Amino acid sequence: MAVQVSYPGVYIEEFGPAAPIEGVSTSTAAFLGVAEKGPRNTATLIQSWDKFQEVFGGFLSGPEAWLAQGAYGFFLNGGTTAYVVRVSDAEESAADLPDRDTGVALTAIAVAEGPAGDTVTVTVTDSSRVDDALAKVGGLPIAEVKNARKTLMVATSAPFEAGSFVTVVKGAERVTRRVASVAADSVVLTTALPSTPDFTNGLITGALVVASAAPAAITTMTSRTVLAMSDANHGLSPGDSVIAKVGTKESPGTIQGVSGATITLAGALIGTDDYTGGTLRLADLPLGARRLRVVSPATVALNQVVPPGTLLAITAGATTEYVRVASSGGDIIALDAPGLTSTYGLTDPETPPVLTSAEFDLVVFDGSAGASTTYPRLGVDSRHPTYWGTVVDSSVVRLTNPEEAAPADSRPAPGTYPLVGGVADDRAASWQKLLNSPSTYLDPLGARQDISLVVVPGATDPNLQSALVGHCESLYDRFALLDSLPAASIETVTDQFATVRSSKGFAALYYPWIQVRNPATGVAELWPPAGHIAGIYARTDQTRGVHKAPANTNIRGSLGVESLLSNAEQGPINLLGINALRIFPGQAQPVVWGARTTAGDLDRNWQYVNIRRLFVFLEQSIERGIRGSVFEPNDLQLWQRLKRTITNFLTQVWKDGALFGAKPEEAFYVRIDEVLNPPSTRSLGRLYIEVGVVPTYPAEFIVLRIGIWDGGAEVSES
């Protein structure tokens, strides 16, 4: 972008080269199968065998139970990163916790799968952080109610003073009143309590109310912004919205400062009327108001009892509305938008709107263990310090929040809710579903662009293996590793290979199964090899590069193979494309002795594993590396930049030994020109780039020619 110049001088404009292409990872595997436990039917990132055991459990037995064995072999042989998909039809027990309307506030789901979760119950009760704090202010038992229900006889009146507000509690009934006077053993209210219930033996506590005041008399209007009041007990504070009135004339204003009986307004009163002899009162709280001035006991810190995210209940008469708190401090509570949904009059100091917070207590009872855990005063907003989503860390249930419109009071309704519907995992049935409908579980993996290897350990079903091959071929960014049938003869595995042959070469078949000592039992068992081989792929990629064939490498953790192969037996199946696992004399562990894909003789270009995977690496790296050039002007400058970027990347690949040639020009070429991109092509928004590379093929057959040479030095005896 050109620098915008105006004054004479030197201007600085920074520039930088195009971002280099970074090679993509080629060793992240995806494993699918059945497991002891863990997330169901979704890809979970696992980066160690210990983590696999923690999330999915250990080894299982049975014809379908090879997922753990495959993951163990992968990490043992050098794999570091895998996505694991546990296929399962299990269901956890669950219960919907209804809201105060007709919807669902929360859903409680058992952590444990199956019927065990049906023993769990969840109990919800209403609670209040504010009420708990106010109960500590007083909390005095009422010994007697006298004087037409205005005088409350108590042990001590010390926490209260005249003009403050108290809440009188008896059972579920709560009444807020102003204090007229106090004595050593009584509190006198300005307004009588209701006739029922009898508040004897109830409690008297502190209260939190919206500040209100009777209209105060204006003695003199010194100026249109300064008013002298009749006395300093007007009950008004800076920031208050007020109404000045004289006769039928009114003017709104906002108090900027208060000094005793003198009030300064932030702006001039409207009009020319003289408000001397009139009144000044708090303005009613209008719709959408987001600032509340409150009156609370001196010992209650507002920012502690009404923190951000609090669900605040405002009660005036028989009406209660719920709003969210944005911030609080001093004597001010700020509300989230859209603010109040009702109006509130503030001219009667005896009946101000009463405030409290709306939280809930959650009790989780585990019937199988006979134990319960209580989570008190939970908030419904993520800003709340005891938000349910961060505080409830139960090992018995987890809570979820349905994505639906919630009422203003979004707490779950009080009640006891048993969890129901737990279904045990039928692993054999789940395995069969994977075999019958593999695309259900493979298709979601397509969105994971970092996956480069796909394995279903022990799966030898033709339908599933064909689906694995098709999955990799359709995405062009991953490679499938296939297990041979157990106890397979050469004829059997040859027939199996015929079902997975594909000219594109996105899979490899390994034969036979390997013998492994089960770490859990110490017993030697026959395991499918694909998981171990995937680890060898990862290890080879990390130590040598993707261009190195993952062969002539020992299989860590393997003691032997199911059947020993001779050279004569391996020869025919190797030429087909079946990779043998063999033990040679003097070796303790089997080695991978083949590096061919399932392309076989259908397309010799893709018959080697490392060639196919090298091209996957090159294609994916270049594609992601030049993605930033999409929608750039399709001009010569872009062509040169792209050519330079791709050339630099391929030069490094050549230096790493992946491309054949004495110099870069012999190993690859990058072509972007007008022959490939004539005006008619460019007018369609297209840019064609042609890249040719000379890969290094594996030295699969080393032919040693040796014979008698008669051109050497003559040897004679004397």
Could you characterize what this model shows?
By secondary structure, the protein is α+β, with helices and mostly antiparallel strands. It folds into five domains: 246 residues, 3-Layer(aba) Sandwich (Rossmann fold); 98 residues, Sandwich (Immunoglobulin-like); 78 residues, Elongation Factor Tu (Ef-tu), domain 3, CATH 2.40.30; 142 residues, no CATH class; 84 residues, no CATH class. It contains 15 helices and 39 strands. Strands 2-3-1-30-31-32-36-37 form an eight-stranded mixed beta sheet, sandwiched between helices. Strands 7-13-10-11-12-9-8 form a seven-stranded antiparallel beta sheet, with no helix packed on it. Strand 18 and strand 19 form a beta hairpin. The mean pLDDT is 93.
Oligomer: single chain
Structural class: alpha+beta
Strand order of the largest sheet: 2-3-1-30-31-32-36-37
Question: What would you report as the Rg, rounded to the nearest angstrom?
Answer: 40 Å
* Number of DSSP helical runs: 15
Approximately what portion of the residues adopt beta-strand conformation?
25-35%
In angstroms, what separates the terminal alpha carbons? 89 Å
* CATH architecture group name of the largest domain: 3-Layer(aba) Sandwich
- Overall mean confidence score, pLDDT: 93
Largest sheet: 8 strands, mixed
Percent helix, as a range, is 10-25%
Secondary structure tally: strands: 39
CATH topology (fold) name of the largest domain:
Rossmann fold
What is the domain tally?
5
Q: CATH class of the largest domain, anyone?
A: Alpha Beta
Shape annotation? elongated
Low-confidence stretches: none
